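HUMAN:
Could you generate one sequence with tokenized structure?
ASSISTANT:
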Amino acid sequence: MNSELQEVGLLKGLAAGDRKIIEGIYKDHFNMIQSLIVNNNGSVDDARDIFQEAMVVLYEKVRTGSFELNCQLKTYLYSVSKRLWLKRLQQNNRLFTQEVDLEATIPVDEEIGQHEKRDAEFELMSQAIQRLGEPCKSLLEAYYLRKMNMQDIALQFGYTNSDNAKNQKYKCLMRLKKLFFSEYKNGNTHG
């Protein structure tokens, strides 16, 4: 019930053009829309455009005074963004010959759930990496984030050869896996 009241408050703030509330809605929901667009042939800029359009649609509906939100705000924004993006894809003819019906793929709530689950998993993974300690943390970052090869890693971390570095990377990965799954089992995800 509380969250419903909260969302009514957000809509009132939006109708009044309250900057703080508009920024809050953006902060809470943009990443989800960005995932949707980027995973469907779009760029981050496209995602920004679509999110702005969806916000304008919402703003104009709220301004009429007769708009009732029959679902969560994030579900509404997601659906509108999805429709807008589908329309734009069709206009740009980026759908080629196969008509992809974004509407028919997965129910919106289920889709949002998947995004949230992935976000929670990323969060846990980065917590696990933080707890991993050195040299594992730096070694895995060098390999996966900075894309260094084993030869360079061996030099930087003082291993006698790249095979030793590879073995260490493997041990670090096993430790990370253990940490990640122990966090995961303890129910630290939000869903």
